[in-house]
Amino acid sequence: MTGDDPRSERASRRREGSGLSIGALRAFVGVVDHGSFSRAAAAMGVSQPNISNQINALEQACGARLLNRRSHDQSLTDVGRELYTRARLVISRMNDFEATARLFGGIKRGRLVIGFSTPPFTMPLIAEYRRTYPDIEIGTRLGNTQSLIRDVIECRVDVAMVSMLEPDNSLACHLLREQGLNLVVPADHPFAQREAIDVKELAGLSLILREEGSVTRALTEQALAWVGATPTTALVLESREAVKEAAACGIGFACILEGETGSDRRLKALPIRGFRRTAGVYLVSLRESAEIPALGAFLGLAGGGGEI
């Protein structure tokens, strides 16, 4: 039968409305272990009527007496003896579950999957997070902005650090920093003697472009459109590192977002003047995921501004 079967749903509602609760099982085991309702109530920190009500509800749910109330030590009936061991097993597993949940809730254990399109900004934060919360397991996923946003929505990652032109209103987006567009040139090219380059000079340059879906690609195309030009494409590559290697080899010039060139001495990054549009580095997650302690701690360490 499927989970949508009405009979299964009705049976589930009957169980929820019956005395088959973890509290009732704990009351039952407590009475047997302590030998009386009053001692079980004292040990569990509840009133004796509470214990009596729990036991009565459990017996009604089982359709049989579980305890011989006339015996001075509340001995088990035959049915009660059958269920006692099983009840202890259920309670033991529930205790294990609650202990594990407390560890996760206290950020002592857990797993956080981080997607990123911006390693220069993401890796220092991951390093700090690991130092602060060494018991949290970290998984990673590399991609471009478009693919990582999809991963967040489909719960393949808990949070993504990505460059975006605008925040996505359907998600929790925390702005960490703004990024302008840079032109990356070989260190031995005459352009490398400059401190910046005008956006108008991009027209006619042979450019190494990122793939469709990349924010760098979108911002590059917007810069060219600003001056009424279209890309002269030398090569299309799917990673920032590949773009940088191609530029260092003289295949063409490359537009890269500010702060992402790294310390490669073969290259120089020139700010593009005359084009004011910027991207931003954002931490992106589902709004409801912010309540996950491991993710909340990551957002706190990042120190991003408020949610946008």
UniProtKB/TrEMBL annotation:
The keyword Cytoplasm does not apply. It comes from the Bacteria. One of its GO terms (cellular component) is protein-DNA complex. Transmembrane segments: none annotated. InterPro entries: LysR_HTH_N (IPR000847), LysR_subst-bd (IPR005119), WH-like_DNA-bd_sf (IPR036388), WH_DNA-bd_sf (IPR036390). Keywords: DNA-binding, Transcription, Transcription regulation. Residues 20-77 form the HTH lysR-type domain. Gene3D superfamilies: 3.40.190.290, Winged helix-like DNA-binding domain superfamily/Winged helix DNA-binding domain. SUPFAM superfamilies: Periplasmic binding protein-like II (SSF53850), Winged helix' DNA-binding domain (SSF46785). One of its GO terms (molecular function) is DNA binding. Belongs to the LysR transcriptional regulatory family. This is Transcriptional regulator.
